[in-house]
Amino acid sequence: MAGAIASRMSFTSLKRKQPKTFTVRIITMDAEMEFNCEVKWKGKDLFDLVCRTLGLRETWFFGLQYTVKDSVAWLKMDKKVLDHDVPKDEPVTFHFLAKFYPENVEEELVQDITQHLFFLQVKKQILDEKIYCPPEASVLLASYAVQAKYGDYDPSVHKRGFLAEEELLPKRVINLYQMTPEMWEERITAWYAEHRGRMRDEAEMEYLKIAQDTEMYGVNYFLIRNKKGTELLLGVDALGLHIYDPENKLTPKTSFPWNEIRNISYSDKEFTIKPLDKKIDVFKFNSSKLRVNKLILQLCIGNHDLFMRRRKADSLEVQQMKAQAREEKARKQMERQRL
Amino acid sequence: NPPKFLTYHKALAEIRNSLQPFANSSG
After folding, report:
1. Which of A115, A100, A130 lies closest to A29 in space, CA to CA?
2. Do A140 and B12 touch (CB under 8 A)?
3. Is the ipTM beyond the 0.95 threshold?
4. Bridge partners, residue A257, by sequence
5. Quick one: closest CA in A to B14, which residue?
6. pLDDT tens track of chain A, all 339 residues?
7. Hey, are the CB atoms on B13 and A136 less than 8 Å from each other?
8. What is the distance, to the nearest Å, from the Cα of residue A73 to the centroid of all Cα atoms in its chain?
9. Residues of A in contact with B13 (CB under 8 A)
10. Is the peptide bond before A19 cis (omega within 30 degrees of 0)?
11. H or E segment to which residue A14 belongs
12. Taking CB atoms and an 8 Å cutoff, what residues of chain A touch B1?
């Protein structure tokens, strides 16, 4: 009897100690995973858990994205996960995505996992036509994507039709030419054969080096109105803020590099960009919603921080990571030579 | 065999030329 009471007591105290949890689904560019998240967890707790699970150390480029009322939002690190305006039906779903882009992929992306996630995200943006890519660059990119996936070209393995099921080119590009799928495959394969000897990480890096030269790469666009009520697009990227004609997302009418901006602020729906040079006019605009203003400001702060950080010496952590990556690369090369 | 050296712009020009004969008149 006493034993039964004791065991019941310990069971209830154990039960009381267990924290309340909820299920979270995280969707990355190539995987889905579920976690039990404590109700009290902040954004950072969940974000760190995801990064640890992925083995990702270059965390500063990434965020957990969700959609609220048709607009994109990112989980705040210092706010409780459940205090965000996320649909509370379980599993609560977030997309683990790159939020900020490097200025130079080759210099800044160190770990293979970071490069791979960027490669997958940028490839999707190009195929979904979120990033404009000219036809010739699309074919070259496709050939690197094939090298990354299939390894070296081997005509005895990669026979006619081997790319038939692959999505390799934006539809817009395909529609510009009177070419059959076989003709596209032939052209892509001819370039794929040129990449012989490139490992997956190298092919993905070549892909990113080409993609980063396209005008829309890494730009977040927002519809705004200037003080006269004219519709414009605001672009936020690694280099600064850009103002576009809504008909032309490729070439900005004006740009404000981060090092030439004194201050960015908003009150209610009005945004103000104050340039450092007092001779240049202050630029004021309105966005559609307060929520969008918050996102614009978040992206400005994050991109500005990274812009400043790039212009200082690497932190110890990054130095160490780069040294490790160099060692790893040398080791892989030795291995390949040996084989 | 060492990988054949490719210059990016030369590659793009070559691809552009190979696609051009098949361009839609509207394109």
Report:
1. A115
2. yes
3. no
4. A240
5. A136
6. 455 555 555 555 555 667 799 999 999 999 999 999 999 999 999 999 999 999 999 999 999 999 988 889 999 999 999 999 998 889 999 999 999 999 999 999 999 999 999 999 999 999 999 999 999 999 999 999 999 999 999 999 999 999 999 999 999 999 999 999 999 999 999 999 999 999 999 999 999 999 999 999 999 999 999 989 999 999 999 999 999 999 999 999 999 999 999 999 988 778 999 999 989 889 999 987 888 888 999 999 999 999 999 999 999 999 999 999 889 888 988 888 887
7. yes
8. 13
9. 136
10. no
11. helix A2-17
12. 196-197
Tally Cβ neighbours within 10 Å of residue A135. Answer: 21
CA terminus-to-terminus distance, chain B: 39
Residue B13 touches chain A, beta carbons under 8 Å? yes
Region at A131 (left for phi over 0; alpha for psi -120 to 50; beta for the rest): beta
Distance, CA of A102 to CA of A76 (rounded, Å): 21
Cα–Cα distance, A273 to A264 (Å, whole number):
5
Q: List residues in chain A touching B: CB distance below 8 A.
A: 135-137, 139-140, 175-179, 183, 187, 191, 194-198, 210
Residue environment code for A287-302, b if the CB has 16+ CB neighbours within 10 A, otherwise e: beeeebbebbebbbeb
C-beta atoms of B15 and A139 within 8 A: yes
Query: How far are the Cα atoms of A115, A237, B26 from residue A179, in angstroms, in the given order?
Result: 33, 36, 14
3-state SS assignment for residue A314: coil
The DSSP 8-state label assigned to residue B17 in this structure reads H
Judged by CB atoms closer than 8 Å, whether chains meet at A140 and B18 is answered as no
